Structures are given as structure tokens and as C-alpha cells.
């Protein structure tokens, strides 16, 4: 081997282009094309542009959903907010479930007011509003009933802290059927009343008497009653407040008044159910308002922490393609998916299923203790896993299907006011 002043001269590494990606992971990557929103710099090769709807149309991904992970202060919120803002250029709309009240600046930039939900407040949303119209403009009663029953069962199970017994599920079904026979959409107060005052005809349908049917549904009714007459009243206990403007480019459901409530997951489920039903109604003849919609569920761990709600959320996640929707769930750590239940539990399986139903995963810096878990859940290579604790602020590991990218998110000067969550710490106005 010839020598040089710096030591032995190593021959250049030669490899076919077919094997270059395996020989140098994260280096030989052609990117995702130029159609879509500019996210920032691909640290290993030029600009990084991403759009789930374009990639779905091209067959690059099989679903448009995304999950974003990141420790506090590592840039995940800045990415989500600027991503929504930039998508508006393409006529895309955004709907956000905001449990911390962090999207007010983004709403102000768009010229809209967040829908602030407060106990005893001015705004009510009916989570049992019907879903999409069926073929020919006629609502599918079977489809609407199924959605409402699943939501009610999920809310009741979350409130009770356990799965519903068969007799409780039947009591809920009969109560909803009784309410649904009346004019207008069903409401939670009407369902609670039907559970506490079942009819003789309803009891006869399951070969029992009214007294036994009342006892079957009593625990469910008392738990749901908290949303109607208890400390959580005034948000989901009646018809949807008329006059809500859902036609703007951004709709924010602000739940920050209840962020520290033990019932946050239940409240987020109610808000998300109403939002999805509203989207479905508008999408019955195609994408909402002629454009695709991005639906963000921030602090998604609160929904996954309840088994019944997690079941309902995963089922809803699968409907994204039918409604022209790309869902975005935002969490802190990969362990959030496994902390929702015991090892091997259905709850953990549902949480991880949500990951499987999200073909785009964006991971900002994670603690060293998360590396092994991230490698397993995201099928990371050894090189990719080792990078996670070392990522600086604003740099994310993107997994789009089987492909990987290291992306430095860029925030423009005009966007800084939209994403600043540090003013309380820095003293800046």
C-alpha cells in the first residue's frame, strides 16, 4: 500500500448505486420530490419537501396520517404550527384539538377565534351530532347509530374505568334507540334521561322488566351525568351552539381550562368526535370545502390513556382516507404509547396500532432511555437509533414508510411569533 505524509492511502470505496443506500444509510436518498410544503433542510442532501396527500396519490405511502414525538423544547410544536400555516398556501384547512391553549397565536394570524370550551361557558358541542350523509344525500341511519353507540360506549367505559358489561352495553343501545326516535339529533342529556327512565317497551325487547333495565344502565347513567349536570356541564350537554363558523382555514377547539382535569381524555374524545362528525358531514360530497384537511390532536396521550376512548380513536383514525383527512397525533416520548397500560395489554396494542396506522413518523430528540424502545417501535437501524439522543433543537428524524431523513426544520422571521412558547421563560414580550 503506498504511503503519504498522513499515513497509508486507503483506496476509494467503490459500490454499485443499487447498494449505495445500504452502504451509507441516510446519505444516498433522492428525497420525496418537490410537490408540497417546504419543511427545511435535508441534512444529507438539499431541501426537504413533504405533503401526505401528494405522496398518497403517488403511491409512496398507503395512508396520510402522521405521529410527531419530541421532548419539550425540541421543536415539535414549532414544526406542527408552521406546517399548518404553510399548508394554507395550497388551500389546505386545519382543525386542531388544543388541550393546552397553544394555538391562539396561529388562530390570530389566520384571523379566526378559537372555540373555547369551558364548564358553564357560552359554547356547546354535541358529540352525538350525526355523521356523514349516505349515498344520494340521505343519511345512513345504521352508520350514524354505529358511530354514536361506539362513542357512548367509549365515553362510559372511560368514565367507569373499566369495560362495559354486556347488560350495560345493551342498556346504552336501547337508550340511544329511544332518543334517536325523536326529532333532532340525540344529545347526552337525553341519553342519560333514557337510561334513568327506560320505557317498558325497551325492557320488553330484551325480555326483562323496566326495573331491571334501569339497574343495568344506572352506573353508566350516573357517570355520564357528570358531563350533563356535574362539574363538566356546559360543554357537551346540549345541541351544538348555532352560528359556529367552520368555514375558515383553521378551527381550534381550546380545552385549556380543563388541561389538569382527570377527565381530560373524555373531554378530548367528545371534542374530537364532534370535530370528526362535522368534517364527515361536509365531506359527504368530497373533500371538505374542496380541499384536504389536517386534523391535529395535541397531547394525544390523554386519549390513549383510556381503553374505551383508545378503541374509538383507532377506529376513527382508519376513516381518514374516506374523508380526505390527514390526522396528526402529537406526543412527547415513544414510551407514551406503552405507558397507557400493562405490558401486552389491549390498551398498549391499540396505542401501537395507532402508530401502525400512521405511515409518517417524525421524531425529535429523545432521552437515551427511549432509544431501545424507539428502535423496536419504529424499526430503526442502529445508526438511526444512535442519533435520537444527539439531535439538536429543530432537527427531526423523519420515517416516511421505510425511508429515513434527517431534517432541520426552518422557521421564517414572520413565523416566529406563531411558534414562540418560551416568552415566559426568556422575558420577551
Task: Summarize the structure in words.
The chain is an alpha/beta fold. It is 39% helix and 14% strand. Helix 7 (188-196) runs antiparallel to helix 9 and helix 12 runs parallel beside helix 13 (346-356). It starts with a strand and ends with a helix.
Mind sketching the topology for me?
Elements: E1 3-4, E2 7-8, H1 17-23, E3 37-42, E4 47-50, H2 52-58, E5 66-69, H3 76-87, E6 93-98, H4 104-110, E7 115-116, H5 141-160, H6 166-180, H7 188-196, H8 200-205, H9 210-228, E8 250-254, H10 264-282, E9 293-297, H11 301-304, H12 307-317, E10 325-331, H13 346-356, E11 360-363, H14 371-378, H15 382-387, E12 395-400, E13 403-409, H16 416-419, H17 423-426
Parallel strand pairs: 5-10, 5-11, 6-8, 6-9, 7-8, 9-10
Antiparallel strand pairs: 1-2, 3-4, 3-13, 11-12, 12-13
Helix pairs in contact: 5-6, 5-9, 5-10, 5-12, 6-7, 6-9, 7-9, 12-13
